[in-house]
Design a protein that fits this description.
This protein is α/β, with parallel strands linked by helices and 220 residues long. It contains ten helices and six strands; from the N terminus they run αααααβαβαββαβααβ. Helix 7 (108-112) links the parallel strand 2 and strand 3. It starts with 7 loop residues before the first helix and ends with a strand.
Length: 220
């Protein structure tokens, strides 16, 4: 298991006004809307979600690095747990033509409004019960998803990712290293249920048998 940072460059590219997040719109109401994972969250007001998630190619650079790092080749199978609209999966198919992609997300809205080219390969479902046989995928991804689960589902989801991956696994979760980052995370997040320092996340990985790679998102 290794710490590998593929996506912080994307995370840091977004400017955040943490105080505005809690002062301009009732935070509890925003969180309730966001946790429906419907249109409000994906394509509604920025204060309750992404503010309009549209494909812009930003994930292509990440896909290129992942293909190289994990040695993906045509015929390899990749699963994205919490795939959203499938943008990363689409870019992986561009970076490595011939790979087989599969995505799962709890949001029916995201699946119904996903990237057309990969839409047939996406399905609605929960990370705590992946509908795939053991060791089905050469690479299993889960980016900015698992921190949205409460502890009992987080435990199952990590075990499920380990179960269906036959080789590489990579998860990214939100975390904090100090009180300032903790406050910023609490101000900014809308759907997060599991708030853990890196040491606690590593405890989760060890105790669920997760052997893949990981990275953390910090709100600095």
């Amino acid at each position: 298991m290794a710490y590998i940072d593929f996506i912080s460059v994307l995370h840091k590219a977004t400017r955040r006004d943490y105080l505005a997040r809690v002062n301009e719109f009732p935070k509890a109401q925003a969180a309730r809307l966001a946790r429906e994972f419907g249109k409000d969250y994906w394509d509604g007001d920025r204060r309750v979600g992404y503010g309009g998630m549209r494909y812009d190619g930003r994930w292509r650079a990440v896909a290129d690095v992942m293909v190289e790092h994990y040695g993906l080749q045509p015929g390899h199978r990749v699963l994205d747990v919490g795939c959203g609209k499938g943008f990363l999966l689409y870019d992986l198919t561009r970076s490595c033509p011939g790979i087989e992609v599969c995505g799962l997300d709890i949001s029916r809205y995201a699946i119904e409004n996903s990237k057309e080219e990969v839409s047939p390969f996406l399905q609605e479902g929960h990370a705590n019960a992946l509908p795939f046989p053991d060791q089905s995928f050469d690479l299993v991804l889960s980016i900015n998803t698992l921190h949205n689960l409460q502890c009992f589902d987080l435990d199952r989801a990590l075990r499920e990712i380990q179960r269906v991956g036959r080789k590489h696994k990579y998860v990214v979760v939100e975390s904090y290293r100090n009180e300032e980052e903790k406050a910023n995370l609490l101000y900014w997040q809308l759907t997060c249920e599991s708030f853990h320092r890196p040491e606690a996340w590593e405890w989760w990985f060890k105790n669920t048998g997760y052997s893949g790679d990981h990275s953390f998102i910090y709100f600095e």
